[in-house]
TrEMBL record:
Source organism of this protein record: Hymenobacter roseosalivarius DSM 11622
Compartment(s) where it occurs, according to its Swiss-Prot or TrEMBL record: Cell membrane
Keywords for the protein's UniProt record, in alphabetical order: Cell membrane, Membrane, Transmembrane, Transmembrane helix
GO CC term, one of those recorded: plasma membrane
Sequence intervals crossing the membrane: 210-229, 236-260, 266-287, 308-330, 336-362, 394-413, 597-616, 623-643, 649-670, 691-715, 721-750
Superkingdom as given in the UniProt entry: Bacteria
Membrane topology: Multi-pass membrane protein
Taxonomic classification: Bacteria, Pseudomonadati, Bacteroidota, Cytophagia, Cytophagales
InterPro entries given in the database record: MMPL_dom (IPR004869), Mycobact_MmpL (IPR050545), SSD (IPR000731)
All copies of domain SSD, residue ranges: 239-361
Protein's recorded name: Exporter of the RND superfamily protein-like
Length: 767
């Protein structure tokens, strides 16, 4: 079949696949599901899912903090009237299952066979509010939960429908903020925290930032392509190829039912930069052949023959870098690695099908400066090559010092994360969450499953005393500012039986008194807060609470001390406990980060080793290839230690991705070297010619990669910011190592004579 007809057929097939991809991409949706960040397949996740079916999800809540007018306290009749109006409004909203508010809170009193609920706040009698405030600040469980410690704010707590998604969640949030505005609350007077807030903000920002990143990447890459090739087709054709790979990758993701989340949102911008590598190597080689006087068809054949092997290997190693992320137990990282790795391979396919077809159908390009011997970069690269050779001791010395210092600094990197790690300190959402940290119990949920041993019930006095001991420890040692458990029920009922006297809020002294109290518990079974603490058969209970988001390092240490306390101070023959909850699951991710990173890097290194062994059948060449690509990883780890950047879910992916991308240029270099060795009499001449042939593509692709990742620096998410910064630095250090360490190591390991290395470049002849 003639080449032109084959080209048209190729374009037709690719156009049909692209049309199908457009159909699926149109169905893509943005999503931020907090539960997706739980460690998939973990036994603790299975346990929590069953636990939440019995007691409810500990994350299905919204906290609304309302501040009193300046200079006053919350015990102000007009202010409380607005709070009450808001409470009544919220109770009528769809997707709201329960509302706990200061204005509807009651102090139950049992008299005879009935229960009388006395409001804590007498809204219709303003003169009683000072006395009400005194009672409230003496009653356990109210201050720090519903009332701020300084008396300047209150919280309304909403329990929402389980796993409420973004559209209904956004509708609810809009209704709440609109009502608050109507009631005269300025934006600075109210603060909202909870999963719905994070879900709404994260998804909206993902949409805006994807557009921003892609726009910046297109502008940056277009400029670099024009600077490099100075032709319209040298700009347009790479853009078409890479945008096609992105379209296919997103279409496949949509066809598999995967939404765009905090991790997969990086796919387009990463592919836009990573996918450019093969196209630039291809066009650079094509233009070089044309510059040497080859015809268009011959230039394409040579380019496909000599670049196809190296590009295929580099695409394989780069995709492996992403595929290794599939070892992660965190679903968003798993999906990101899978579909980005596939997209890298798709970019390779399009580079060697769509790009040749388009070049074949275009007229032979007129080069800006016709030339017969080499190209414009030969002089610059030749001088750089000579500089590296002459100053090889300086290069090795500085490299050794840099590695030693980086290793020392890298030892200071710690694994640490918080629930809102991806938001900067000055972010309004994080500041709202911080409001509840400063004035109330906090936003980090705490859950402990309680099971009586030996056939007992939660309402056994011995069991209750054990639970109370745990509560005391949690308040004093862990920092739980709000705690509720079966003990809360018994103490509350006892207080109600004694006229609501706060002094009676304690456990009974005897089994007989406890039996009388338990007999009255049925009067309170309609209260949601009671039903959510004990199962109907009293065979299982729940200790729940909230605390400040102290970060995973302090949380892990506190949990370790808690487990020690439970083992040493709680009688397992009376009460059995198990730590659970959403925060505990998020913390568990940190335990897997180091393992996942080591596994990913190990797979990368093994695959690169096998590829080099297959190419050169030399262990020495394997070391030559690995060192220039591991050095940037070590240096960036040192930068993290120096800057105090913690290892967390978002930053844990940096090293495997960076290694997979950085080794791309090395694969191109050694594959070209293998071909050049067939034409040159010595290794030295082969290395020099390869340096001149591959140097331009290495520098240009690295600039595009660094520039593309630098667009992520504009992200409002700290995790995305550090991905852009640290991968960009890794690639920057990588190209420096590529142009300095790699040729020196090749020549050093093969013991070339210093006299030959020191020969003037001009004396070696041009090839």
């Amino acid at each position: 079949m003639p080449l032109r007809k084959l080209s048209y057929l190729t374009l037709l097939v690719l156009a049909l696949v692209s049309a199908l991809s457009v159909y699926y991409v149109a169905q893509l949706r943005f999503n931020y599901n907090f539960n997706d960040f739980y460690p998939a397949g973990d036994p603790d996740l299975d346990y929590y899912e069953q636990y939440s079916k019995r007691f409810g999800n500990d994350n299905d809540y919204v906290l609304i903090g309302l501040e009193a007018p300046a200079g006053g306290t919350v015990f102000n009749a007009p202010f409380l009237a607005r709070v009450d109006s808001f409470t009544r409004f919220v109770q009528r909203q769809r997707y709201v299952e329960q509302v706990t508010s200061p204005t509807t809170l009651t102090n139950p009193i049992v008299e005879g066979l009935g229960v009388f609920n006395i409001p804590y706040l007498h809204l219709d009698e303003p003169a009683r509010l000072p006395a009400d405030s005194a009672i409230i600040y003496q009653t356990p469980g109210l201050v720090g939960n519903l009332f701020a410690t300084n008396g300047r704010a209150v919280t309304v707590i909403l329990q929402t429908a389980p796993d409420l998604k973004k559209p209904p969640g956004d509708s609810l949030m809009t209704s709440l903020t609109t009502k608050l505005t109507q009631l005269g609350f300025a934006p600075s007077d109210y603060h909202i925290a909870g999963k719905l807030v994070a879900q709404s903000v994260f998804v909206d920002r993902l949409q805006r930032e994807m557009i921003l990143f892609m726009s910046l990447s297109v502008l940056l890459v277009t400029g670099l392509l024009w600077f490099t090739f100075r032709t319209w087709w040298g700009v347009v054709l790479p853009l078409v190829v890479v945008l096609g790979a992105i379209l296919w990758g997103l279409g496949l993701m949509s066809a598999c039912g995967v939404s765009i989340d905090l991790m997969t949102a990086l796919l387009p911008v990463i592919m836009f930069t990573v996918g450019m590598s093969d196209t630039i190597h291809f066009i650079t080689r094509y233009v070089t052949e044309l510059g040497y006087g080859a015809t268009k068809n011959d230039a394409l054949r040579t380019t496909i023959r000599e670049s196809g092997f190296g590009s295929g290997l580099s695409a394989l190693t780069t995709s492996i870098g992403f595929f290794t992320l599939m070892t992660s137990s965190i679903r968003p990282i798993h999906n990101f690695g899978l579909f980005t790795g596939i997209s890298v391979l798709l970019a390779f396919v399009l580079t060697f099908t769509l790009l040749p077809a388009l070049l074949l159908l275009l007229r032979k390009p007129q080069l800006r400066v016709p030339r017969q011997h080499g190209h414009d970069w030969d002089g610059v690269l030749g001088r750089l090559f000579r500089w590296v050779l002459v100053r090889r001791r300086l290069v090795f010395g500085l490299g050794g010092l840099l590695i030693a210092g980086s290793i020392a600094l890298a030892m200071q990197v710690r694994i640490n994360s918080a629930l809102l790690d991806d938001l900067s300190e000055g972010d309004p959402v994080r500041q709202d969450f911080g409001f509840f940290e400063r004035h109330f119990a906090g936003v980090r949920p705490f859950e402990l499953d309680l099971k009586p041993a030996n056939g007992g019930t939660i309402y056994d006095l011995a069991v209750l005393r054990q639970i109370e001991r745990v509560e005391t420890y949690l308040r004093q040692e862990v920092g739980l500012n709000f705690v509720a458990s079966p003990v809360t029920i018994i103490k509350s009922v006892r207080k109600a039986l004694n006229g609501g006297d706060v002094a009676e809020y304690r456990l009974p002294e005897s089994e007989a008194e406890l039996r009388r109290i338990v007999a009255k518990v049925r009067l309170f079974r309609k209260k949601q807060e009671f039903r959510s603490l004990v199962q109907p058969d009293a065979r299982e209970g729940r200790l729940t609470g909230r605390m400040p988001d102290v970060g995973s390092i302090r949380a892990d240490a506190a949990n370790a001390r808690l487990r020690t306390f439970l083992t040493q101070n709680i009688d397992a023959s009376i009460l059995q406990t198990r730590l659970t909850g959403s925060a505990n699951l998020i913390d568990k991710n940190n335990q897997n980060l180091t393992r996942d990173m080591i596994v990913g890097m190990s797979i990368d290194v093994v695959m690169v080793t096998l590829i080099v062994l297959a190419l050169f059948r030399s262990l020495r060449m394997t070391a030559v290839v690995l060192v220039p690509n591991l050095v940037p990883i070590i240096v960036v780890a040192g930068v993290m230690g120096l800057a105090g950047v913690s290892m967390k879910v978002s930053t844990s992916i940096i090293f495997t991705i960076a290694f997979g991308i950085a080794v791309d240029d090395t694969i191109h270099f050694i594959s070209k070297l293998k071909l050049t060795l067939l034409k040159e009499p010595t290794l030295f001449l082969a290395v020099r010619r390869t340096y001149l042939m591959a140097g331009k593509a290495v520098i240009v692709t690295s600039l595009i990669l660094v520039g593309g990742f630098s667009t992520l620096l504009f992200s409002s998410f700290d995790g995305t910011f550090y991905v852009g910064l640290l991968i960009g630095l890794t690639l920057l250090f990588g190209v420096i190592a590529e142009l300095t360490l790699l040729p020196l190591l090749i020549l050093y390991f093969y013991k070339h004579k210093p006299r030959e290395i020191r020969q003037p470049v001009a004396a070696l002849g041009a090839n």
